[in-house]
Structures are given as C-alpha cells and as structure tokens.
Amino acid sequence: MIVGKVVGSVVATRKNENLTGNKFLIVEPYKNMAGNGRIVAIDNVGAGIGENVLVATGSAARIGCNAKGSPIDAAIVGIIDDAIGLE
Amino acid sequence: MIVGKVVGSVVATRKNENLTGNKFLIVEPYKNMAGNGRIVAIDNVGAGIGENVLVATGSAARIGCNAKGSPIDAAIVGIIDDAIGLE
Amino acid sequence: MIVGKVVGSVVATRKNENLTGNKFLIVEPYKNMAGNGRIVAIDNVGAGIGENVLVATGSAARIGCNAKGSPIDAAIVGIIDDAIGLE
Amino acid sequence: MIVGKVVGSVVATRKNENLTGNKFLIVEPYKNMAGNGRIVAIDNVGAGIGENVLVATGSAARIGCNAKGSPIDAAIVGIIDDAIGLE
Amino acid sequence: MIVGKVVGSVVATRKNENLTGNKFLIVEPYKNMAGNGRIVAIDNVGAGIGENVLVATGSAARIGCNAKGSPIDAAIVGIIDDAIGLE
Description:
5 copies of one chain form a homopentamer. Chain A contains 1 helix and 7 strands. A 5-stranded mixed barrel of chain A has the order 1-3-4-6-5. Chain A has one domain (2-79): CATH 2.40.50.220. Chain A is mainly β. Chains in contact: A-B, A-C, B-D, C-E, D-E. The interface between C and E is medium-sized, with 33 and 34 residues. Strand 6 (74-79) of chain A pairs antiparallel with strand 2 of chain C.
C-alpha cells in the first residue's frame, strides 16, 4: 500500500458496467512513497479531497473491496489518522 | 487506474487466438499520472483517438472485461467526461 | 521480495473492514534494492521500527499471509538476521 | 501490453520443468512505450529476431497462453503488422 | 522474466511459516534489463552466487514453483547457458 493525498476526481459516464456506482478519486503519492505519479482509485471508505489515505493496488483492490469481477486496480482502503515516520 | 489519451492503434494479424476481435489502442498517460511511457490497451468502451480515457491494468483488465482467459493486461474502461484536479 | 528497513507506521481508524487487526508499517527499500520509494506493508512476523525486513508484494502478500479477501498488497514476511552481498 | 522489438534470445538448460518447450526471447520496449529495460518473454506466436511484437505481462501472460501453472510473467502474443501513432 | 546475476543471499530465521525451506538469493538485473534495483528471489533450480539466471516475478513465481500459498513474488527459474543479444 502507499499513503497519498486525494487531489481530485474524474467522471466517466461511458464506462465498463461493472464500474457503475464507484467514485473515482485522483491520489497523489505522499513524498518519499513509492509511485511515479498520480493514480485513479475507487473510494472504499468515504474519503474526500485533501485527505491523506491508504491506497491498495493490483488484485488486492479488486478482491479486497468486493469487486472481484470489476476492472479496478486501485482502491482507497483507509483514511490516515496518525503516523510515525511519514515525513 | 490512470487517465491517459488515446494517441494511436496497432494491428497484429498473427496473434494469440484469444485476442481475436479486440481493438488495440495506444494510450499516453496524462501528465502527472503514474506510468513511464505509452501502453497498448484493449478498448472496452468504444474509445477513439484523441479521447481522454480511464485505463485499468493487470488482472483487473482481463477479469473485469470478460476476458478471463486472454493475454490482456490493460483495458480502456471509461471515457473521461469531467475532472477536478487533473491538471 | 525486497529487503527494507522499517522506518515508521500509520494508523487508520476508518478503513476497509478486512484490514482490522493489522499493523501497518512504513518500509524504506534498502539501498540498491528495487523500489522507487517507501511502501506501507502489514506486519506478518512481529517486526519493529529499525529492523531490516523481507517484504513480499502483490497477490503474494495477500494470499501468503492468510488474508485472501483483504486489500493488502505488501507484507513483511521475514526479519533479516544475516546477509551476504547486501551491501 | 507494450510494443517491443525482439533483439535476442536466451537458453537455459537447467530450468523449472514447467518451462520446458518454450522459446525465451529478449524484447526491447519500443521508444516511448512503458518499461524501464529489456524483458525476457516466451514466444506464443512464432516471432523472430527483429520483429515488432505485442507483449503481455503479469498473470495475463501465464493464463492467456495456456501456461497456468508455469513461472511465466511475459509473453509475445502478437506480431505488429501496422500501427498508427507508434512514432 | 528478466536475466540477472546472483550477487548474494539473505537469512531470516523469524519468517512466515510458508517460507520455511527456501533459499533467498539476491539478484541484480543484467544491464539493459528491466528493473530498478536488486530483488530477493527464492531459488527453484539450484543457482549459486555469480551465475546468470532467469527470474520470474509476481504470481508466476508463486504458482509456477508449487508455492501457491506462500508469500513469494520472485523466483529463479532457470540458469542461463547461452544467449544472443544479451549485451
């Protein structure tokens, strides 16, 4: 997983039918965290713009968020309350 | 997922038989988005050159697009209508 | 897998329910090891800050740590005692 | 998937038994395509040195090429005949 | 897959129980090969320090090496005897 900040969202009316009902948020990886740019993640925890979140990628996002048959490769799975050593 | 722009397409007559019937589009990741270059994605939503699209990668592309047994690792799964914070 | 050093931890009270009970540690990949930044991994072996650990990523983390249905993409699966050629 | 050029091959007599019978080709990702170096892919379509090919990676290579139980993470799944926007 | 050279090994006494019995080797990707640093791979073919090996990553390593339930994301699956175009 990585920690990132929610910096935006995207809307896609024409999309794969298994994606219906999801919110797509743009996440910027926190400085020092792995990742070479922003990603689009579905929101699994009610995150909002400006929040620091935990993002899972790959099959973990799909299978861990009850979306086994959906084309989802990234999901926000936690909202960061506190951290040691993030800086 | 990432947001990218469709910039081209490729044709492969000799190919794995499970790929038959797919359109292969070249997608350039949007500036600031993750990714270290263009990728080839199958088209799952009727995308065209010049459009901004949502691309899923890994097993999500294969399983989420009803192509469980095909050698597909990237798929265009949405067409971007609107966005906040993409710039 | 990669070798990394535990440099911190994160707390997320609001999170995917399948993540409950896990400890989320921040791991910095060892110099020369693959990886382009820190990652957040669940702790599967009782690791602590400052320890050098073995980290598995992708479906290996989820499936290999009895967390098949959880959105986990990285896990600390060993504590390094000794190494040849790590430097 | 990415487009790459076949630039060589490797031979491994001592190998995992599930790899027996495969041809291992070295593929250089096409300029502008994703990837940070050459990869070794099994040949699923009869590709030869110098040809531009379509390469699938991850579980797609293994499952999409009828090699479900083999340690294969990249496969040449098409030979490029024509392309728009590849340059 | 990638070609790499075995440059070391790590020992972890405290580890996930499904890892017991494996040898963990440090592999440095061959110049020009994909990869952004060294990785730790289990040894599936009896490789030794200094040898050039074929490494599979992701679910291929786990499933292709009869370690379906283990947190393994990289495995040495062949020893390179000969190569064309590796330089």
